[in-house]
Design goal:
The protein is an alpha/beta fold. It has three helices and five strands.
């Protein structure tokens, strides 16, 4: 079981494959929510060590976040409204830590 420590978050843009493989959380940018959803599902398939993925609209209008709490069953969160890259990153970290804390305290 993962600890609720600060997850290693890597922004997709500009990161090399090694950085992406070491990430607990990958954060990408998209213009289309359907493409964002497909990207998140691909992240979980291609980077099995990654327990969360987030896809932020390039203009900050929305962000779709998924945390894989059980194999094949993610917990989802949707953010909306003027989201800077830093605000998105902080929200994603908080969501991941919250989900992991809840899961680790379940009997």
């Amino acid at each position: 079981m993962r600890e609720a420590a600060d997850p290693v978050l890597v922004r997709w843009r500009g990161a090399d494959r090694a950085a992406r493989q070491s990430a607990d959380v990958l954060l990408g940018e998209h213009t289309d929510p359907v493409a964002a959803l497909a990207w998140i599902l691909r992240v979980f398939a291609e980077y099995p060590g990654c327990f969360a993925a987030a896809a932020r609209h390039v203009g900050g209008h929305w962000c779709l976040v998924a945390v894989m709490i059980h194999k094949g069953r993610p917990e989802w969160m949707i953010l909306s409204g003027g989201l800077s890259e830093d605000a998105t990153e902080n929200a994603v970290r908080f969501f991941c830590q919250t989900v992991l804390t809840e899961v680790s305290t379940c009997p």
